[in-house]
Design goal:
Elements: E1 2-9, E2 19-26, H1 33-43, E3 63-66, E4 69-72, H2 78-81, E5 85-89, E6 95-98, E7 101-103, H3 105-113, H4 136-143, H5 153-157, H6 159-163, H7 169-181, H8 188-196, H9 209-213, H10 220-235
Parallel strand pairs: 1-5
Antiparallel strand pairs: 1-2, 3-4, 3-5, 6-7
Helix pairs in contact: 3-7, 4-7, 7-8, 7-10
The protein binds iron/sulfur cluster and FE2/S2 (inorganic) cluster (FES).
Iron/sulfur cluster is lined by residues 60, 148-154, 171, 174, 214, 216, 218, 220.
Length: 268
């Protein structure tokens, strides 16, 4: 089946205006938007610019607007979206630098604000070669939120991000909750401070668009609500601050493992 593909073009060195280039593409069952773009670049127009790496929904670099909705291009089959016209544009709410490519510096700067790593006072005393204990329930409480691949789709879908460029955004806020909830972390207060000030967590209107669009099922809207609850409980003194999980005793290997001897060969 042949379809029309409209690709948004932008080259700030040549013109400040964006425009569309149109191509014809032969689409087959299972062909992804990224497959189609790669075919067009190799066979129709080598100047189309877009980002990709893993081709399997892991690196998060191929996110773009596909028929006006943010998706991963490698994770979206063309025939599931359209049988006539495919319109490809750069992600909304991110600065467009070339064709389908966006500048993610502001996105990662916001991510850094919430300190996306384990924080604890005793870090220097810890034996970093050892393990820190964590129960399956403790892991479960943040695991879903750790699946974020930093694709920026939630930010593209968020109506608050569309109107407030300073807003921390669903990705950073969900990660603030993810690390605060981790039993190995003791930086909850610092992260609450970072998430609450300025254009932070209280600017979320709970539209839920981030969770609907997220390709990894992270559910940032849910994380934001849980984080808000945690902030309120802490401010009322109702949330006990727990000490961060301690180190496990070093594992010792049995010097003489009890491995049964193999049977004698029948033919010597
Ligand atoms: S929360 Fe989901 S949509 Fe947002 S950056 Fe992470 S993986 Fe992408
Ligand atoms: S190319 Fe890595 S997520 Fe699409």
């Amino acid at each position: 089946m042949k379809i029309k593909v409209k690709v948004s073009r932008f080259d700030p060195d040549k013109s400040p205006e964006r425009y569309f280039s149109e191509y014809e593409l032969e689409v087959s069952e299972g062909m992804t938007v990224l497959d189609g773009l790669i075919w067009l670049k190799e066979n129709a127009d080598p100047t189309i610019s877009f980002r990709y790496s893993c081709r399997m929904g892991v690196c998060g670099s191929c996110a773009m607007m596909i028929n006006s909705y943010p998706h991963l291009a490698c994770h979206t089959q063309i025939l599931e979206i359209t049988k006539s016209v495919l319109v490809l544009e750069p992600l909304c709410n991110h600065a467009n630098v070339r064709d389908l490519i966006c500048d993610f510096s502001a996105f990662f700067e916001k991510h850094r604000t919430i300190k996306p790593h384990l924080l604890r006072e005793d870090a220097e005393k810890l034996d970093l070669t050892g393990e820190i204990s964590q129960t399956p329930q403790e892991l479960e409480s943040y695991l879903q939120f750790s699946y974020c691949i930093k694709c920026g789709i939630c930010v593209a879908a968020c109506p608050t991000c569309a109107t407030d460029k300073e807003y921390l955004g669903p990705q950073a806020l969900a990660q603030a909750y993810r690390y605060t909830q981790d039993s190995r972390d003791a930086g909850g207060d610092k992260r609450i401070e970072a998430a609450a000030e300025g254009h932070g967590i209280h600017h979320c209107h709970y539209a839920g668009a981030c969770s609907e669009a997220c390709p990894k099922g992270v559910d940032p809207a849910f994380a934001i609500q849980l984080f808000r609850k945690q902030m309120v409980l802490r401010s009322l003194g109702l949330k006990e601050t727990r000490p961060p999980a301690g180190e496990m005793p070093p594992m010792t290997l049995n010097p003489k493992p009890n491995i049964p001897k193999p049977p004698e060969p029948t033919i010597k």
